[in-house]
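DM between two lab members

TW: hey, do you still have the Mechanosensitive ion channel protein entry open?
JB: yeah, one sec
JB: this one, 763 aa:
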Amino acid sequence: MGSAFAQKGRLSDKGQDVSILSDSATLTKGDYLAHLEKVFETVNKVPVTVGSFKKLKPIEAHLTQDEAALALLKSRLMQSDRSPNLQNLQMDQTLLEELQSNNKDCLSDLDEYEKELRALKTEILNLRKDTVLIKVFTVPAIQVMFKEQFAELKKKRIVMDSLLKTTTLSINNLQARTSSNLINIKELMYLTDSQLDAVSIKAFGKERRYLWETVNRRANKSMGFRRFIKGEQEISGYYFVYTRSSRLLLLFTCTIFFFWVFFNFRSVKQRGRLETLDGFSLVSPQPYLITFIMLFALAPIFDLRAPALYIEAVELILAILLTVFFRKKLDSKLFYYWCIFVVLLLAPVFLRLLGMPPRYQRWLLLFLTTSSVAYGIMVWKMLDEKTKRYRMILTTGFIYVGFSIIATFCNLFGRFTLTQIFYSTGVSSLLNAISLTILAKVLVEAFLLQMKSSRIRKGFPEYFDWQPVITGLKRLTGIGATLIWFVIFTTNLNIFNGLYESVMEILTEKRTIGNFSFTFGGIVLFLGIIWVANFLQKYIAYFFGDTGDDSFDDNKGERSKLLVTRLVLLIGGFLIAVAASGLPIDKITVILGALGVGIGLGLQNIVSNFVSGIILIFDKTIRIGDIVELSNKKGRVKEIGVRSSTLLSDEGAEIIIPNGSILSNNIINWTLSNNQMRVDISLLIAKPFNSTEVVNLIREIIVENNNVFISKEPIIMISPVSKLNSTINIYFWCKDISKADLTRSMINAQIFEAFEQKNIEIL
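TW: and the structure you got?
JB:
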């Protein structure tokens, strides 16, 4: 203040007016309140910020659960008195990966909270550097002036200090626990990988004594059933809590399938046409059983690393469902053999669940493997040629017998892990092959049901040539079933991950030709999407019951929509394929430029036909089902493609015409706006006759015909030719052009018959 006054004196000496400057150096009560308001804002921000940390309690609960799961995993992996189960080791690996991901997410959230809290503390510390606030809190006179504010601020400060202290402590504690979990997870991952490698290596070595040697009592101790089940249930529970699999997608897919089949059957039943579905042997009006078979047949592919207990439970339920399914579909002898297979499937599961000593398990497994070999040979001898056509089941049957033989020798020579792997893989592969084969046939029948129900709803004939469609669908479902079976089979053998990584390494490796870089994966993805788009555009019409052989006039609008849909699928598929494959757009542009040069040189006709096809689809000059005349060709439009269109002549010939030729010629479309056609009949009759009677007679015959369009009055004209005869010209309209010739013939015959009764001679 003294320096301020000295400055003021010096300025006065110079004769300057400094009254404004002197006033600005004086702080008012409003200035103090403004700075105090900043303090209140900062203090009030603390509970708001801390209250926004809503994930702290869930994180604490998750960490408690994670720590329990890690403790259980550690105790399982550290067990030395029990051989590790290969499937459970794979499941442990998956569970640890999920735990690592969850803990990293928790640590990220905690770091974000700590960052917000640190920023808040920095803001509080910056308040201490404010000179005005220092004056407010140090000058007694000012403290007296703001006594009420200081009292309230004191209360808020106590709450603020408590919140900051407890929240900081909580975040630091949770960060320490999360970091500790991540360290433990890394250690357990290393231990799991080591045990997986050890299992793979030891499996080919002598793990146990030869079966004929004396018993090692110490290594032959049994594990209590309750203890074993409890451990399996606990680890399975943690697996389903943590894993982010597609089980909900599987349930949703099966639910959609159930209602799809159910509503198609109901729509056919409501129209009283259930007799058209007599040939269906797998799908039924209430497809509960087949839906559950689908659910449990596909469950392993949605959980490749699921716990052994879960996979065994799925196989158990699937075997029971198939037994119920086969009860009325197989003859008694074949069903009896199926029941034997179910016993051979379930026996090892119960052996493991009961916690029997390894020595007893080995002897029982020896009995089961030798029985499986004998069983496979017996079933092969009694199968008929029709059953042997199922190649997937037949091939898997040979694998089952071969693996049983290998398991027998592995068991005899102390390779107990290999014994379990080969026997369980052989049995489950045969079960999966049977269930997936049934599932493939079910999907084909469900698609055929969709086609028939759609045709019945639209009033089309339920019979059509469905064999080409079914052949294509069988090929697709067969490929899908084989791929699913192969993935499950290689997973059971613990070679899927290695194969997958090797294939992905080949597919994702960048390769360069000149300046063009690509990957095999991008090319495969590009071709795959193009193939799927082409498949969908080819079969989408069949899905809605349109086989292309029906000439119903009220179906033309829908067929036009299907044409547009097919075009969109093709173009959209190409664009998605380019985007998903990662192929460089600039290189594709160069290729398209080169293609443009090629078009200019020699591909004009192809491009012209392609563009003309798109114009025909959207312009609707002609539509599928229209009766048209092009030059000297007449027929019904069967198909409009992107390059050419097909006419079906009255003689049954299919006339293929390039789209460019269609647009460049005159088109006579008999059914563009309606399906009507004028028909003319000419008769020569002898005189004498009553003209009024003849006209009324002909008119009556025409009006009574169901295919005659009554709204347009028939025209009957009588023209004398000579004294002996006259010509009668008859014109009337038909509702349906496809029945015009039949209608002309019927009316002609009725006129002849009526004239004969009236003694009118037709020359």
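TW: got it. The chain has five domains: 29-204, 246-463, 509-583, 590-673, 677-758. The beta strands are 511-513, 516-518, 627-630, 633-640, 644-648, 654-658, 667-669, 677-686, 715-720, 725-734.
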